[in-house]
Every structure is written in structure tokens, then in C-alpha cells.
Amino acid sequence: RMKSPAHRTRDIERQAGYLKPEHCAPPPPRSGSDTMWFIRDGCGIVCGVITWFLVFYAEFVVVFVMLLPAKNMAYSLFNGVIFNGLAFLALASHAKAMCTDPGAVPKGNATKEFIESLQLKPGQVVYKCPKCCSIKPDRAHHCSCMCCKRCIKKMDHHCPWVNNCVGENNQKYFVLFTMYIALISFHALIMAAFHFVFCFDQDWTKCSYFSPPATVIFLILLCFEGLLFLIFTAVMFGTQVHSICSDETGIEQLKKEERRWAKKSKWMNMKVVFGHPFSIAWLSPFVAPDHGKADVYQYIV
């Protein structure tokens, strides 16, 4: 018999009596709240290191190739403060996105004791993930890669560049990361263009501490890096903002899941991710979003 589209988008949908909790091992003891979240995935760690290396390379070229040799102190100071400030916020956002629990559902909680604690009424339905043996909240999905190995609440996608899933608890930091990387990429491209013009008008030996061939190579590599990451992160930032405003994660859009949650305004959806109420803290990776009375995704539907 053919399954309906709604059933194809969920892992398993069963009555509580058929969950077979005896097949699930007791959940592992919860670690302390001060334990840092970190995915031990070789590929993700390499991607994260590459990200930091590319930002530091851009810092080197901007500071030592373009700004310090410039004769206009005000120009160097102004652009140096802006670029380094944005780069610091980008790396801080990356670190927070990587080391924040994205909303992981406890593994192995589909035990008899846990199911009894839900106090299910006759006819109520719960979802169980057969991969991590957990009772899933609504809108949670199991990470398909082999590194997270658990269900993530409101999971959007797994991003190797932050070595983590993007979910309910760290989406703010991922959006800030893409925004700040796009801004420093654009800023670096503008400065590189001005520096090329400046060097062509003067003696190349007077516009850089390095030899003319080395200066050209540094600038070309920076332009290539800046253009590539500007396009990539700007598209990702726009995609994330659209996903937040429509209150539909990337996985839900990909699977074309039927909307079964209350529809909210775009502004309310933004506040659910970045915090209540609107403030300058929305732009800070050091302030955890205050979800206030945001919807809680229940285990029972």
C-alpha cells in the first residue's frame, strides 16, 4: 500500500503502545550544562580551520599589504577598525555556531519510563526516531551525516564549515556568521580595488612593504577569496533570512512537508530566532537570544 506524503516525511509514526521501548537502551547520563558542545568530525574540523585561516589571510593582506603602507593615516585607521571589528564578530559568530548545542534531542529517551511520564491519552500519537531511539519533538529531524548522530529540533541543515548542525539554538549565530563574512569580503574587495588604483598611479615600491610581484599575488588571491565568499555567504544569508521569515526550515522546504504549526508574522519569526524584543543585541554573537514566550515544540501531536 502506498504511503501518504505526510508519512514519507516522518521517520516513524506509531501509537504509543507500539513504540517498543524495550528495544531502547537507557539514555546516557546528561553532562553538565557548562560542558561545551563540539562535534568530533575530521572533515568538519578541517573546514572550520580553513575558515579561520582564510579570515586571518585576509587580515594579513588588508593590514600589512594595504593599510600600513598607506600614507593617509585617517584612511588606514578608519578601514582598519571597521575591517578588524567585523572580522572579530565573524570569527566569534563562527565559534558560537560551532560550539552551541543546536537543539539536540536526548538520545535513547524512548524508554518505558519516559513514555509513561508523557501521560499519553488514548489516541495520542508520538514520533520515534529509529536511528537514535528517541522520542522526537515536532519539527525535529535526524542529522543524516555520520557525525551528529541524533535528532535536532528545527534542524535547517548540517554545515561542515561550522562543523555543526544549524538548528533551533544556534541559527542566530550562523546567520550572523554569514552576514559578517559577506561584509568583510565586500569591504576587502573595495579596499583592494582602491589599492590597485593607488599603486598604478605611483611607484609600486612605495605602495607596499613587499615586492611588486608579491603585492600583486597577495591582492589577486584576496580578490578571488573575497569574491567567492561574498557570493557564497550572501546567498546563504538571504536563504536563511527567507527561511526564518517563512518559518520553514531548509529540510522542511526540501521535503515539502505539510505545515502543521501556527503561522506567525515575519517579524515574530525573526524575534523567535534573534530574541525578544528587538535590540542591538541581535547583532551580537555574545548575547544568547531570549526566546521569551516562543513556541515550545512538543513531543505529542
From TrEMBL:
EC number(s) per entry: 2.3.1.225
Location of the Palmitoyltransferase DHHC domain: 128-256
Subcellular location, principal: membrane
Regions crossing the membrane: 43-67, 73-92, 173-196, 216-237
Domain of life: Eukaryota
Keyword Transmembrane annotated: yes
Similarity section: Belongs to the DHHC palmitoyltransferase family.
Name this protein carries in UniProt: Palmitoyltransferase
